[in-house]
Amino acid sequence: MKFRAKITSLLLVKQFAQLLQNLSRCSSKAVLRLSHDKVYFILKDAEAKNKGGAVWCEGPIDAFFGEYAMEGFSKPSDEIYLDVNLEMLAARIGALKSAHSVSSVKVKLTNKVMPCLTFEIESDTFRSKTLCVHDIPVSVIPKSMWKEYEEPEVPEFDINISVPEIRLVRSALERIKGSGSRATVTGCSDGWLEIAMNKFTVKSAVKFKDLTVLKYQDEDDQDGNPRNSKKSLPTVREPNSDSNEESSSFSVEVDTRSLWQLIHTEDQRPDNCLCSIHEGRLLHIFYVYGDVMIKYLLPGLAS
Predict the structure, then answer these.
(1) pLDDT (tens digit, 9 = 90+) per residue, 216-256?
(2) Based on C-alpha coordinates, what's the Rg of the chain?
(3) Is residue 40 located within the same domain as residue 77?
């Protein structure tokens, strides 16, 4: 197996560092999956902090690297799965999100007593050039275990609704997050989203109005895949505003700390954010940054 990549754009360096830092707040470990067309970060719910559910992040090669070459496990299974320590990776690379003098970052899979991801960070200053090398130990995941890291199956959602600007949600949620250990997230077909918490006899809630409710366009997509299959983002259309359908709302109760964690984690402004609810069972939140998608799955709590 071989892997070598290089980032020469300062913008991509900062975005990559920010992504690592955000993901490390959700879990101390992740699986880095490398293929010939995409890069994946997979965080399983068993390893998530605060029982925060699973996280799936994916993007095309050019969203992460300017140069990229890899040889996988074998020809029929030409991919690489690596178990990485996110906290260690974020501690070494996360600081680059505010770097101004980095000219390139080289990443390669090396064998230094144990398998490592080696980062070679070149910086140019007015007076000198520096090279900083970080060796991050990793474990190569055998092919027999790859099925454990497939994209999670999700049920058909009852409602899909756009989410307002994340900083507004974060600010509102921060004011009420101490009001209970459970948060009820409700989406309504009239175009509002509510987050409510109860503590003793007191209810605290924030409601966001005038949001766009989205619906699946077809039972099957253009490739013939069922609409509840493992797709990164659903194919959607805005519902007909002249529809005479009665309004309906759907709710799911989740752990407050886990919800706060995934809202607080996103420091950047996503291009798009979608909240999907499966009544009582699952809260599904998509963040889209250009071609990179991050999907959070929070399981519903038992009553």
Answers:
(1) 654 444 454 544 444 445 555 555 555 566 789 999 999 98
(2) 21
(3) yes
Print burial letters for 17-41: b (CB count within 10 Å at least 16), e (below 16): bbbbbbbbbbbebbbbbbeeebbbb
Paired strand residues for 205: 196
pLDDT, position 219: 46
CATH number at residue 185: 3.70.10.10
The pairs formed by 90-94 with CB atoms below 8 angstroms and a separation of 24 or more are: 90/20, 90/21, 90/23, 90/24, 92/119, 92/134, 92/136, 93/16, 93/17, 93/20, 93/119, 93/134, 94/17, 94/18, 94/20, 94/21, 94/24
How many alpha carbons lie under 13 Å from residue 197 in its C-beta half-sphere? 21
Give dist(CA 95, CA 108) in Å, integer: 19
- Kindly state whether residues 126 and 184 are assigned to the same domain: no
